[in-house]
Amino acid sequence: MEHKFRCNCPITVALDVIGDKWALVIVKQMLTEGKKTFKDFIESEEAIATNILSSRLKMLEEFKIITKDKLPDNKKTNIYTLTEKGVDLMPIIAELSLWSDKHIREFYPELYSGETLQIIKNNKEGFINKKIEDYKLENWK
């Protein structure tokens, strides 16, 4: 499928692929919450609509950010796995967490401030590397 981009700016093109409301949420759920199936995503607290989820999963697959396979013991269920491109988004997800904590908390005091955020603040690179390593160990067998 041919893709249309707004311009040739690297930031704008990246946002054309992962900058909508849901693409990074899906990647974040895969990396940090272990989501793998359509049902996993639908049951998450973010409450993504089924039609939007289908569309975003297809788009992420087209750009080779995720792959889709069948579960070995259930050929009806698709399982989604991040590719290297998808895993490479982990630093962006960590940075967005820090940015949100620093700049959005004043507008939304209920913003998550638990252990994971503290780990990112104290050792961002360590957190990123551990999440990537854990994901690869769990999913790239």
From TrEMBL:
InterPro entries per record: HTH_HxlR, WH-like_DNA-bd_sf, WH_DNA-bd_sf
Keywords, in A-Z order: DNA-binding, Transcription, Transcription regulation
Residues covered by the HTH hxlR-type domain: 9-108
Protein name (database record): HTH hxlR-type domain-containing protein
Source species: Postechiella marina
